[in-house]
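Q: My labmate handed me this sequence with no annotations at all. I'd like to see what the chain might look like in three dimensions before we decide whether it's worth expressing. Could you predict it?
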Amino acid sequence: RLGGEVTAEALTFALYDGLKLATLLICVGAANALANPSRLLKSLPGALYELGVAVVVALTFAPNLIADVQRLRAARRLRGRPDKGVRGLLHVGLPVLEGALERSVALAAAMDARGYGRTAQVPAAVRRTTAALTLGGLLGVCAGTYGLLTAEGGTYGLPVLLTGLSAALAGLRLGGRRSLRTRYRPDRWDVRAWLVVASGVAVAALLTLAATRDPASLHPGVVPLVAPTLPLWPAAGVLLGLLPAFVAPDPKEPS
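A: Here is what I predict for the chain of 255 residues:
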């Protein structure tokens, strides 16, 4: 047997880890399905605007590539030509690549015509301060998170995390001065958006409180093998996390 003896405890432990990974993928998929890329781009600070544009462009190009592949394969099948194998892959892949390059060139020309990438003149002292705050803040966030995850860092973890987060936000605020960006129609947050944010904060608070008060309930043991219990607070937090599925705005709605 590869890996040693197969036991019920080992299978249960693997099942728990698999469920954790599946939950993470479900959360990411739900957020991607409920989010509007254009609204997300409007909400980013000026320092992250260019990075956000690159991510949004990449996310919007992927569905176009899949649609092009399906369209070309259907066209080849209608003409009685093979759409599988090495030959079919070449005849489908080359037009898809050509179309992607054409869209990229057209998008680059449109972005250049709209002034994308142009930055304002910022003094050198402000640039150095921005870099120091951002880098120091990220290091503080990493150190604070590590402190919260270890038993020895329980006293300094939270203050270091909050200090690093404040420094990083200040750096992003200063970095936004380099972005020459105007808003024709500012994105307004309505009641539904606030409910989505409140549900996320409430879930994080409830699960953090449950992990602090009763960590064994969130990490059921496998040795000895016992049936896991359903704690009240984490279950309520998970149910509260389903609220965005009903109140989140439709991603296809115009902002």
